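ok so for the tutorial part 2 we go from a plain amino acid sequence to predicted structure tokens. step 1 is just haveing the sequence, like this:
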Amino acid sequence: MQFKTNPKNTSTSALRIIPVFEENSEETLREKLGFQGLSSVLFSGKKDSSYSLALEKNLILLIGLGKTPEYKAIENSFRRILSKNPELVEKEVLIDFSDSFSGEQVEAALVGFQLGSYSIGFYKKEKAKEYSKLKVEVITTLGKAKSLVERAGKIAAAKMEALKLVDLPPNKITPEYLGDWAKSLGKKAKLDVKVFDSKKAKSEGLDAFLAVGRGSAKDPKFIILEYRHPKAKFHLGLVGKGVTFDTGGLNVKTQGMHHMKSDMGGAAAVLATTQLVAEMELPINLTAIVPAVENAVDKDAYLPSEVIGSHAGLSIEVIDTDAEGRLILADGLSYLVKNYKTDQIIDLATLTGSSIGTFGFECAALFSNDGNLSHGLQQAGEEVGEKSWPLPLWDNYGREMDSEIADIKNYHGKPFAGAITAAKFLQAFTHEHPAWAHLDIAGVAFGDGEFSKTKTGTAYGVSLLLRYIENQL
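step 2 — the prediction. this is what the tokens look like for a chain of 473 residues:
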């Protein structure tokens, strides 16, 4: 898309979009359309409402946002335009904001509008409508409008990258693909990138990570991205679970396996956030680690009851090979703590069905040993519509992971507290880092939604991490 900004409407666009808040709908319509003749029965600015009409040379689309819309609600309202009404759009669009819009609300609208161009029909013979040449004129009296538009474009691009990484099939999104993706980003942005193959990972002691990938013909990749800024006063570490496909291993999944391309939703969020931080040149230091593997079944697959090593030096009894995400995260967390002096660490993972049993598809399960970090993530998520809610890390839950034969076991094998015991397992590999948070995003990274007929990625974590980081600056 090609954006430009204007303080006034000077265009004869084929489509003019006017977003309207319910509390001042009459005032906005009078200001923008020059008349009061539109009945409130037809349109009053209520949330999720819309109304189209022809006026002189313009086709007008009114978008109702309700009384006090959240960031995510505005984003979704604007995503619907291109996603559900492509026939309204030809060569040019004008988005006409009233003076009542804040910069954050304009950002949410522009991000959502661009997300509407995303389609999962990657392999269809008949492709979805293409919007790369669409001209978009943004009408706003806000200062620094150009930088606001540029910022929204970077956020939308990062979120679409996260969507694509989850939605593309596992024969495309392999560990090697993610490694190459990171290397490509490193060439475009100010990033140092390292990608360990299995031989290098072995020399680094990443034994738990390697055990998970043993059954796959696809070589695992341990991906490290380092972003440094000369004015940084804060060093954040991110770890994202990158299981590009999860059969469950020898504890093979009995249902829903065709959705397991989504088991790298944490990796997608971490990679896309790293892209965004680098493109925006945020004044922080960031180290991101993505252990990328495929959990498959063959003669070399790791076994239930096997005892494996780990980067932290702890032996692990494998109770369930379908509890594989925590094994690769264990090595990712340990490697990060041992090799980098980070102020805080956040990991994101589609880790447990237990988190879905607790929160459904409404929010992520949040665990942290630091109250400020936990509160900061919660607050940031509330601000952008990517919610999380804390669960405890009490020591009694950790005892559930005691093993008779090894230092720790990877699954307690009981039908309760699955998300909590998984978090306690991860904590054992953080080397007592004082500020660590774990986000179990199993219920929010991939699911049913209004923009597709099938389950798709959500890009959960990208807006949350961006807002959290910027709140620290």
